């Protein structure tokens, strides 16, 4: 085992093994698959809870960058309104990404096997598509260079509005689904993941 | 992003790789100097905002090197070499196993890989004195040290990870029950490979060249070492400092508190504590081991530490300039890859870690995506260990310091950027650790995220 090419072969074989095993264990994506109401509720609440965890970590990092692992090397006296908005911009960009991930998770929850399951999945999917477009617009807006501080703040406000809109419309979409489909409403109420999420939210 | 934007990112990436390659060819201080030129090119030619120079890491290197150099001036390193050699007399090659586990433990206890700087010179000296190719122990220890982050309850990356998996009923203990045994297995496999890696020291052409040119002195057999009078005392002070860092790192409650930005107080972070304690250790060694302050900068540890610091300054600054301006693009590209092919998630975590040199960034961007793609939380924890990919490019402080400490030249930063001494142990370690973690989850955690009870439908 001396030649460099042998090492390359060994490493490639190892990485292929990881890919293979991941392909086997990662077959939980339920998008377009019929799942029980409980599984669907777990999927939705799990995605929302992960999103909530991400938002908490983003807020923590904006408040105290050094405590959460960033280098935190910027001296306080060198902070300017521009650097502060830059910080907020980074946080918003991460929030857009986190929200995008949450939408993917909610979509992947699948089609619940309830009388209105298909309809419910379509409603969620419709929300996901519309929200994705809004988030992409928000990301494009954040990518643009602002000429003035006022422009920068306006950009940040627009992005924050898009994120809030995505979350609000998501809550409404799930609530609507719950109203039209009593079985799903019960599943959302009884799922242990949803209960955990409720406990975290109220604590 | 448009095609033009992607091309620009690729060109900037090539510039970074090109300057790392130039720096590696120059070696020593040249690494940092070329990194500085690279930063200048990225800022002036490509119009990027300058990133953050690695000030915290540089300050830690200064503090740790001061303490280790004071200990060397007092003869403490010789004493440690003697003791370690005696302990390893029957099986000197056991160093290739012991050193990585010690490095791993240090990270677990402190939650940061920075404590590793303090034992790099000791590992190097013990290996060299026993005629073991230093690369074997140093490269393995550097990787094990970085892997310790995912096993540490006090690491920032763990703080990022926990809220993501807690909702799936995985608490800190569950995470550690997966990552710690998996890491122990991964480190063992890596050490096994590393104990046979490369030629023996006497047959290494670069080492022979250095010996002939006087760049490297022949190893002093441990039996020939003549102890200085206060050597033991300096070691005791140094080790007490390391223990103090571990205790403060592990037990948050005993750290001094500082004002928190959101109001109230919070425990001080470990980084300034390491700096304070190590500077104090250096001062105490001067006083109690009777070392002249003027002798400290003449030691080999001080020289290699300062070179490592300059090298890290330029290289890490250039890397951060590229990353800070392109992190979104990197994450977006690798996120799309995982979204289209979920089986790529572990590789995506590894690459995000490597290309952003941040374990926290890889955790916060890729783990939620994996969960959203329907991969079980237990499996995501197992694959999370792939954040050790931060060592993929030779732009990390511990890599540079380890390469600089090794005067034999066996531990190197490579000629083509990715062919550095840490690559083989890194690849072996992350692959075995991830696979072992997946098996552990499959065997002991029911294979999937703990299934909640199927709700009883009772109507609205």
How would you portray this structure in words?
With 203 residues, chain A is an all-alpha fold. Chain A is built from seven helices and two strands; from the N terminus they run αβααβαααα. Chain A has a two-stranded parallel sheet. In chain A, helix 2 crosses helix 6, helix 2 runs parallel beside helix 7 and helix 3 runs parallel beside helix 5. The radius of gyration of chain A is 21 Å and the shape is flat. About 7% of the residues of chain A have low confidence. The longest helix of chain B is centred in the last third of the chain and has 41 residues. Chain B has one domain. Helices cover 65% and strands 1% of the residues of chain B. Chain B is globular. Chain B contains 18 helices and two strands. Chain B has a two-stranded antiparallel sheet. Chain B is mostly helical and 460 residues long.
Summarize the structure in short.
The complex is a heterodimer of chains A (about 200) and B (about 450). Chain A has about 200 residues and is mainly α.
Layout of helices and strands:
The complex is a heterodimer of chains A (203) and B (460).
Chain A: H1 4-25, E1 34-35, H2 37-63, H3 81-107, E2 111-112, H4 117-143, H5 149-180, H6 182-190, H7 192-202
Parallel strand pairs in A: 1-2
Chain B: H1 3-26, H2 29-44, H3 55-73, H4 76-87, H5 95-110, H6 120-129, H7 134-147, H8 156-165, H9 172-194, H10 205-213, H11 231-250, E1 257-259, E2 265-267, H12 270-288, H13 300-340, H14 345-356, H15 359-372, H16 377-384, H17 397-405, H18 423-444
Helix pairs in contact in B: 1-2, 1-13, 2-13, 3-11, 3-12, 3-13, 4-6, 4-11, 5-7, 5-9, 5-11, 6-7, 7-9, 7-17, 7-18, 8-15, 9-18, 11-12, 13-14, 13-15, 13-17, 14-15, 15-16, 16-18
